[in-house]
Amino acid sequence: MVSRLTQRFSAGVARESKAVLVGEYRRETIESAARRVIARRGLPAASMQAIAAEAGVAKGTLYLYFRDRDDLLEHASGRIFDDLLARARAVLAEPRPLRERLTALVRTEIEFCDAHRDFLRVLLAMQDVASDARHRRKRRHYARYLELLAAHFGAAARSGETRAFPPERLALFFAEGTSAILRQRLQEPGRAVEEDAEWIVNLLLNGLCPRRRS
C-alpha cells in the first residue's frame, strides 16, 4: 500500500513539475515575442493580438499567463533586467582582481545591451509614458543592482583592494556613469566594446588627473 501511494504521489509530482515547466516555457516564449514586436514596431503597436501572432498562439492564450497588456509588458521587460542582474552577480563572484572583475562587468553589460539594442532603445524612448507598474519594477531591479555593487565595493575596501569610500555612493557613481555610456551606445552601433569597458574602469580606478611623480 505504501509503495502504491508513493508511486501515485511521485507521478503526481512529476505531472505538476511538467506543467510548471511547460507554463514557464510558454511565458518565456510570449515575453520574447513581445520584446521582438516592441523592437520592430514600437511600444504602441505591441497589442495583444500582434504579440500572440508573433508567438504563434491564440490571443486568448496570453490571458492564461498575463492579466493584460501592461502585465505582459512589465514581465517582458522585467525578465531582461533579471537576466542582466544574474549575469552581473556571476561576474562579480569570480575570483579575479578588482580591475578585471569590474572590466568584465562593464563588458558584460555592454554586450548585453548591444544584443537587445532595438528593444532597449524603444523602452528608453517610451519611458515617460510607461505604466507606474513598470517604473516600480525597474526601480526594484536598479535597487538590487546598487545593493550588489555596494556590497562588492565594501568588500573590496575591507580587503585593501580600494580605499575606504562610502560603498553606497561609489555604487551609485559607478552605476550612473556606466548607464550614461550604455544609453549613448544605443545610438552608436558598431562602437568597440573593449574600448568603453577599459575607459570606464580606468576612470574609476585611476581618476582624471595624471599621477604626480614622487
Brief synopsis:
The chain has 214 residues and is mainly α.
Question: What's the layout of helices and strands?
Answer:
Layout: H1 2-41, H2 48-55, H3 59-62, H4 69-92, H5 98-115, H6 117-125, H7 132-158, H8 167-185, H9 193-206
Helix pairs in contact: 1-2, 1-4, 1-6, 4-5, 4-7, 5-9, 7-8
If you had to describe this structure to a student in words, what would you say it looks like?
- The chain has 214 residues and is mainly α.
- It has two domains: 1-66, Homeodomain-like (Arc Repressor Mutant, subunit A), CATH 1.10.10; 69-214, Orthogonal Bundle (Tetracycline Repressor, domain 2).
- 76% of the residues lie in helices and 0% in strands.
- It contains nine helices and no strands.
- Helix 4 (69-92) packs parallel to helix 7.
Jot down its keywords.
214 residues, mainly alpha, Arc Repressor Mutant, subunit A, Tetracycline Repressor, domain 2, 2 domains, 9 helices, 76% helix, elongated
- Any idea what the CATH architecture of the largest domain is? Orthogonal Bundle
Spatial shape: elongated
Structural class comes to: mainly alpha
Task: Name the CATH superfamily assignment of the largest domain.
Answer: Tetracycline Repressor, domain 2
CA(first)-CA(last) distance: 84 Å
Mean pLDDT: 84
Q: Level of helix content?
A: over 70%
Contiguous low-pLDDT stretches (5 residues minimum) are none
Strand content: under 5%
CATH hierarchy class name of the largest domain: Mainly Alpha
Radius of gyration equals 22 Å
